[in-house]
Amino acid sequence: MDNSGLAALLNGCAEGDRSAFSNLYRETYSRLFALTRRIIRDEDVARDVLQNAYVTIWKKARHFDHLKGRPMTWMLVIVRNASIDEWRRLRKHYADEVIEDSLSDTNPLPDERAERSIMRGLLETELGRLPERMANVIRRYFLNNQTVAEISKELSISMNTIRSWLRRGLERLRHALPFETAQVAAFIN
Fold first, then answer.
1. In sequence order, which residues have a C-beta less than 8 Å from that of residue 154 and are 6 or more positions away?
2. 73 and 31, same structural domain?
3. pTM across the whole model
4. Digit-coded pLDDT (tens) for 73-97
5. Are residues 80 and 134 in the same domain?
6. Nearest of 154, 115, 160 to residue 136 by alpha carbon
7. Residue 170 and residue 172: Cα distance in Å, rounded?
8. Where a domain ends, among 95, 121, 137?
9. Contact between residue 147 and residue 136 where contact means Cβ atoms under 8 Å apart
10. Which domain holds residue 156?
11. Residue 155 contacts by C-beta under 8 Å, 6 or more apart in sequence?
12. Do 63 and 14 lie in a common domain?
């Protein structure tokens, strides 16, 4: 459905039209659910988060202004924020359950391992969406600590191409991941 159609459905929602909401739900569910699932691995939790986000969309539909942005972008922001909030809540919930141990231990705590696992999973998913050669260069650079020159020599590809793949790949990751920077995620062991 195009922007004007979605905007009309949001306007209907703002006026309390349940059939407009039903149509909006049907038209946008798959795309919004895909975003939620990228952030939250558990399908049931992701469905719950998305349902709550739709309630927010219903309640805030009157605040949508088509002059300030596109309807799908507006809904994606609501769903993304709800998903990240839930992801953080789950992370905090697991952290609160950690039992403090009086023995000195240098291994990561369970909540740190869980957080790293979630981050690693998100990172690997997004790396899998990049072209294979670009993802390979990013892995070599960040995870294997290889220099651009080393990667260039091993793969017989110019250093400028390697730099370009790194820049474009990190830019894609930055937009797709719920982290401050893709580099933060890349340093997760």
1. 140, 146
2. yes
3. 0.50
4. 899 999 999 999 888 888 766 555 5
5. no
6. 154
7. 5
8. 95
9. no
10. 107-186
11. 133, 136, 137, 162
12. yes
Residue 15 CA from chain centroid, whole number? 31
Residue matched to tokens 């390697």: 162
Query: Regarding predicted confidence, which is higher, 74 or 106?
Result: 74
- Would 102 be classed as within a structural domain? no
Sheet strands (E) in 70-147: none
| CATH number where 90 lies | 1.10.1740.10
Q: Which residues contact 12 (CB under 8 A, 6 or more apart)?
A: 19, 20, 21, 24
Cα(103)–Cα(9) distance, integer angstroms: 59
Q: Rounded to 5 degrees, what are φ and ψ at 121?
A: -65, -45
Residue 25 CB neighbours (<10 A): 17
| Cα distance between residue 137 and residue 170, in whole Å | 11
* pLDDT tens digits, one per residue of 26-57: 999 999 999 899 888 888 999 999 999 999 99
- 185 contact partners, CB below 8 Å, separation of at least 6: 119, 120, 122, 123, 173, 177, 179
Q: What is the dihedral of CA 58, 54, 48, 123, to 10 degrees?
A: -150
pLDDT of residue 101: 44
Residue 54's identity, in one-letter code, is Y
Q: How many domains does the chain have?
A: 2
Residue 27 lies in a domain: yes
